[in-house]
Amino acid sequence: MNPIAFERLTHYYGDTKALDSLTLDVPAACVFALLGRNGAGKTTAIKCLLGFLAPTRGTARILGHDAAALPPEARGRIGYVAEGQRLVPWMRVRELVAYQRASFPSFDGALCASHLKRLGLPEKRRVFQLSRGMRAQLALALALAQRPEVLVLDDPAMGLDAVVRREFLDVMIDLIADEGRTVLFSSHILTDVERVADRVAILDKGVLRVNAPLDEVKRRVRRYHAHFVGEAPEPPPLKGLLRAHRRRSELVLTVVDGEGSVEPLCRELGARAVEPEPLGLEDLFVDFTAERGGAA
Ligand code: ATP
């Protein structure tokens, strides 16, 4: 059984449809990245998954339970860190640690202490005296020390500097590799996603557009540069065309599964050369979700 499963999950805030029939499984021992532009529905999906929001229709299941009726025992096996997470501001770091230890039977005090030490988080300081990035680090350290079976992170890297982010990602990889845990995380830092994710899903205005292993997405989506003598023509009708634009004598086409079809079509239009370019996740994401992007 998959530790996380969304089935036809739809959520409205008043008249705003934030999620439109999301069906998605997150397999065990996977680092799964949930991507999408601002307002795409990522936080809404995560809130439904943790039972913080009741879906309008459909279900979200986590560790075999309907998220709408999550028993405390299951909640203890889930770690959660959200952007701008509110930690009790007047508590000292060490008091928060003690509080977490009392709340979660699986809490690993030694692990927490080692994270705090490595991150240089002063245990005597109160939460409101920490910087935004330090609060984010503290929230991560607490969640990791819980040794959760499923770790859900909503934009956890917000406010973290590059060094700490890199370290946090390494910890995340260790967690998965050594212990076979499952991580669902949303992020706008696509270079990070590219480093750690096994699978990616892209939400676009509440609709799931991509759900595949990262390697597969990168293999199937290519950008083609077709060079013409003189002005480039209008883009040809192409199956899988995500984005097309003309730059004087060059036609640039981003296409899903275009191998074998793009080059002959461009040659027919008079292209003198057609060069495929593999895309990094950031370019791929932009072409999938930019306003003019067509259906894949
Ligand atoms: P971001 O990357 O900016 O955090 P997101 O992908 O997490 O965005 P959501 O926060 O899930 O997006 O928002 C999805 C949609 O729901 C947006 O149109 C947003 O304006 C709307 N929305 C979110 N929360 C509320 C709310 N409490 N009341 C009304 N509309 C909301």
How do the SSEs run, as a string of H and E?
Answer: EEEHEEHEHHHEHEHEEHEEEHEH
Biggest β-sheet description: 6 strands, mixed
- Strand elements, count: 14
- Which architecture of the largest domain would the CATH scheme give at its second level? 3-Layer(aba) Sandwich
What is the CATH homology-level superfamily of the largest domain?
P-loop containing nucleotide triphosphate hydrolases
Fraction in beta strands: 25-35%
Distance between the termini: 29 Å
Strand order of the largest sheet: 6-7-8-3-9-10
- Provide the CATH topology of the largest domain: Rossmann fold
What would the principal axes of the Cα set say about the shape?
Answer: elongated
* Distinct ligands: adenosine-5'-triphosphate
Please tally the helical runs, counting DSSP H or I stretches of 4 or more residues: 10
- Structural classification: alpha/beta
Q: What is the mean pLDDT?
A: 90
As a percent range, the share of helical residues equals 25-40%
- In terms of quaternary structure, the protein is single chain
Our count of domains comes out at 2
Detailed description of the structure:
The protein is of the alpha/beta class. It has 2 domains: 202 residues, P-loop containing nucleotide triphosphate hydrolases (Rossmann fold, 3-Layer(aba) Sandwich), CATH 3.40.50.300; 74 residues, Alpha-Beta Plaits, CATH 3.30.70. Helices cover 32% and strands 30% of the residues. The protein has 10 helices and 14 strands. It has a 6-stranded mixed beta sheet with strand order 6-7-8-3-9-10, with helices on both faces. A 4-stranded antiparallel beta sheet has the order 2-1-4-5, covered by helices on one side. It has a 4-stranded antiparallel beta sheet with strand order 12-13-11-14, with helices on both faces. A hairpin with a 2-residue loop joins β9 and β10. The longest helix is centred in the middle third of the chain and has 18 residues. The C terminus is likely disordered. The site of adenosine-5'-triphosphate has 11 residues, from β2 and α1.
